[in-house]
Amino acid sequence: MNFIEIIDFLGIIAFAISGALAAFSKKLDPFGIVIIAFVTAAGGGTLRDVLIGVQPISWMRNMNLIYTILACVVITFIFRAQLAKLRKTLFLFDAIGIGLYTVVGLEMGLAAGLHPLICIIIGCITACFGGVLRDILINEIPVIFRKNIYATACIIGGMVYFILLKFNLPNNIVFTASAVTVILTRVLAVVFKIKLPSPYSKNEIINK
Amino acid sequence: MNFIEIIDFLGIIAFAISGALAAFSKKLDPFGIVIIAFVTAAGGGTLRDVLIGVQPISWMRNMNLIYTILACVVITFIFRAQLAKLRKTLFLFDAIGIGLYTVVGLEMGLAAGLHPLICIIIGCITACFGGVLRDILINEIPVIFRKNIYATACIIGGMVYFILLKFNLPNNIVFTASAVTVILTRVLAVVFKIKLPSPYSKNEIINK
Amino acid sequence: MNFIEIIDFLGIIAFAISGALAAFSKKLDPFGIVIIAFVTAAGGGTLRDVLIGVQPISWMRNMNLIYTILACVVITFIFRAQLAKLRKTLFLFDAIGIGLYTVVGLEMGLAAGLHPLICIIIGCITACFGGVLRDILINEIPVIFRKNIYATACIIGGMVYFILLKFNLPNNIVFTASAVTVILTRVLAVVFKIKLPSPYSKNEIINK
């Protein structure tokens, strides 16, 4: 298991727990919980693989992914009393998930010989699409459109990745720094309620 | 035409009629009816082919599928007075559709050399995704999230398929038994209002 | 740059502006505007490439597309005061976009050796899917389901394409005539409020 596989594995755990928590909070039945956990953990990677043209889709030959997701659902269920403040826990696991998946997407884009700008788009898709599907399925406004810094965190992490790569740092450090940047950007933006600057003048917003 | 092609063909008919009935009940225009029938009949197979990496997508080289869907729309339109109780008829054709498509998905997963558990997921996707798209497009809550046994019926049918396969029964019998299991499970669950057991304690549900 | 690439390029501009205008009208933040412009311009082509099995997806090796979309967003932003009647401008750019993309889809379907009927479906998907995604993301009813002539315009344009092809006219003329047919059909249908004939008797509609 190389470093990128470990990051991918941790991302699966973070997103499967995030999906299961979201499904629990909506009181879905056992089967619905597994579907939501699976879609959250595998959705972004599936779209990435389809777009890059990776065959087979990563989860189709990877039974460990399936078992990991099932285990995460069971563990989340058992400890749901301890995870009492579901919203905060869900938020944290989601932030960790997008950090790890951004790096996996960047790495796979580079391996496919794509332009850095396209790699950053692929990183964003890998990180954000599973959460978007999760929110659509449980009937919440997709997190990406809730007007706070989410995909932007992935883009900033992607830029850090390519800047550090120029300095010929070891891969493990580049990966880690990039993922930590995404997670910190996301967490700090929510904690300090930082928003992107509005491109509209005050008049335009009032007139709306 | 081999046995699996016949099952696929019957599935197309069942889903095209189910899609056309749903579109009629919403008073869509002629073009909208054809789109909904097409998406219902071809949606699940399209996602399956994209995920497995089958090229070309099944309906792109198969004019019979297109003509069959158009014929189903016309026939459904002519007999819509006889199909008076639209909801019940729609429900029945949808149940037949998921039974037949589950088997087609299982078979194609096996042919691609996938693990039985992945084959069952592929069977579910083939069976359920067209109906989910149909419901999203006509603005109904997707049938798969209406908290009754739907995808679960496909999973049970998939398990029956792999159990019977172990006994070296002829393929035709395994196919038929598996499809019938899905259809019966779905119909009986709705008729007798059987639901999946809730994983939550009474307190948790009340507190919601 | 051949004729079809020029048409594709003009289509990207039309749809990127249409997406940016729609995002401005919803007061999205800068990042949201770029996402919507990108999805509107690249969504239909992405689904087309996935279905036909074209690898890599067109925008993944085409940095010009990315830069064009970014430039369109900036230009649209600067001239948004001049584009005061956003709804009408948006409608016009959307109509131009579906005309141009229909032809691109038809051409790529033919190049893949597909049946004319399938080519017309591919043309429709290329033209309509980006706008559908745009409308879903900004939370409008998808334009294709608003009960007026939209995808129908693409189908009529596709039929004109294959009829003119039979007369061995030069490709540029066939392309142009087909795109103009789509745009005119769409614009005239909206201006004169032309709808598809209803397949239902008056009684059925009243009883609804």
Description of the molecule:
The structure is a homotrimer of 208-residue chains. The first copy, chain A, has 208 residues and is mainly α. Chain A has a domain at 3-143. In chain A, 74% of the residues lie in helices and 0% in strands. The first copy, chain A, has 8 helices and no strands. The longest helix of chain A is centred in the middle third of the chain and has 26 residues, at 86-111. Chains in contact: A-B, A-C, B-C. Chains A, B, C: Its main location: membrane. Chains A, B, C: This is Putative membrane protein YeiH. Chains A, B, C: Belongs to the UPF0126 family. Chains A, B, C: The chain crosses the membrane at residues 6-24, 31-53, 65-83, 90-108, 114-137, 149-167, 173-192.
